[in-house]
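User: tokens in, sequence out, please.
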């Protein structure tokens, strides 16, 4: 049987046994894809958009080498910025400053370009007020922002920040874009589930209220639902709100 010289020397204690673990054998790109796939599965398992966003920013700081802090901000109609998820409080301060000064990479990612990169926030001419303040006050020097989604009312972006200038390589930026795509899909799925659950809860409450009217007034199902609808129209209140009141109080709403 033939044994390699390296393996023989390892047995003799002259050199270390070659590392044949999965991490050592898989090229960096494949390793990243493995991490990204696992991250995508974790985000898909989250029960709400908020959970998916919070997990996403933690994943970003874990698998993007240059990323020291990450956040997801949403710009609402009227330019109000809300931080929906942040790896730490530094990101919330950054977003608040963008809102205050009405400039910054998150806003540009939402208003103009899908991906916005800055190698040096201190000297970036696009944000003459915001950039230097972030460097001085927070200690972050570079950033990458990716647009995640847009609706009629809201725009969302994933923002990555590094502590050094030029913290993000071209590979980091490409990896961040891949992560952003998975985050967008996970958010869409979580939002769809949330909407479906909300609709199901609404139908359940309406069904319960209909049952109460059927029992209380000896009405057929169609007639009981018609009574609910008429009360909703007369009071100019959504049908679910009327149903909630009936289920909670066990009484008809007062006129």
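Assistant: Sequence out:
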């Amino acid at each position: 049987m033939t044994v390699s010289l390296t393996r023989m020397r390892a047995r003799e204690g002259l050199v270390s046994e070659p590392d044949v673990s999965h991490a050592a054998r898989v090229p960096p790109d494949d390793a990243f894809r493995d991490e990204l796939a696992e991250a995508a599965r974790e985000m898909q398992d989250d029960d709400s958009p908020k959970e998916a966003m919070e997990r996403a920013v933690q994943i970003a700081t874990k698998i993007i080498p240059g990323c020291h802090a990450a956040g997801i901000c949403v710009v609402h109609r009227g330019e109000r910025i809300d931080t929906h998820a942040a790896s730490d409080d530094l990101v919330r301060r950054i977003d608040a400053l963008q809102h205050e000064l009405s400039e910054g990479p998150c806003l540009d990612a939402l208003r103009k370009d899908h991906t916005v990169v800055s190698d040096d926030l201190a000297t970036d001419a696009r944000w003459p007020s915001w950039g230097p303040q972030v460097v001085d006050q927070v200690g972050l020097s570079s950033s990458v922002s990716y647009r995640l989604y847009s609706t009629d009312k809201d725009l969302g972006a994933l923002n990555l920040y590094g502590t050094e200038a030029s913290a993000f390589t071209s590979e980091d930026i490409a990896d961040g874009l891949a992560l952003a795509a998975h985050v967008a899909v996970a958010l869409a799925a979580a939002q769809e589930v949330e909407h479906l659950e909300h609709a199901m809860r609404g139908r359940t409450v309406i069904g319960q209220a209909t049952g109460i009217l059927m029992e209380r007034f000896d009405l057929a199902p169609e007639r009981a639902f018609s009574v609910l609808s008429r009360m909703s129209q007369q009071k100019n209140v959504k049908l679910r709100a009327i149903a909630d009141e009936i289920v909670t109080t066990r009484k008809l709403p007062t006129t």
